[in-house]
Amino acid sequence: MNVLVKLSSYLVSEGINNLLLSNGHQGQVVIHQKSIPDGFVPDVILVDISSISQSLFAGFPTSKVLLIDTGVEKERIIAALLSYPIHGVLSLDTEVDLFKKALQVVNEGQIWVDNNTLKAFLRQNTATPVSVKTDSVTEREKEIIDFVCQGYTNREIASTLSLSEHTIKAHLNRIFRKYNTSSRSKLITMVLQQSGKKTVQ
Fold it and tell me: What is the pTM of this model?
């Protein structure tokens, strides 16, 4: 099994690399920050919330992606699960044997989600979506919803759009009222169920 480690922290990437190699991993392990060998195609890609992107899936369309939870808000993990074709979520606190099992399960095309993430997802996504008239959502609000679906924080959205964080909060409050929710993950669920797409169009 070939593994590409694409985490935002080189130190953590190196640690996972050493962990796999010292535990008899069969196959190549490549760290993204180093040069990727020509012709290398990973079976599984390890990412975190900061390193995941649409270009990753475009570059390796046949690879399975396992998201490493580095301790960010569960809301961002759930948003990533709803926005990208991720095959699993794994905490950095996971024991070595479970980590190896998760890699194998994901490589076989199955889904692996740790209990904490699953519980958070179920808690935040039990409400029945309400009908929202698309005409009532402005173009700017659609743009912000799109960023929310990609797991961006208010600060990151503000920086990307060159707006103040206060302005983004005001937009989100209006969006939440229109969707009759106060949760980002519920908002994402409603948007995806309504549009049948990964992002707001």
Answer: 0.62
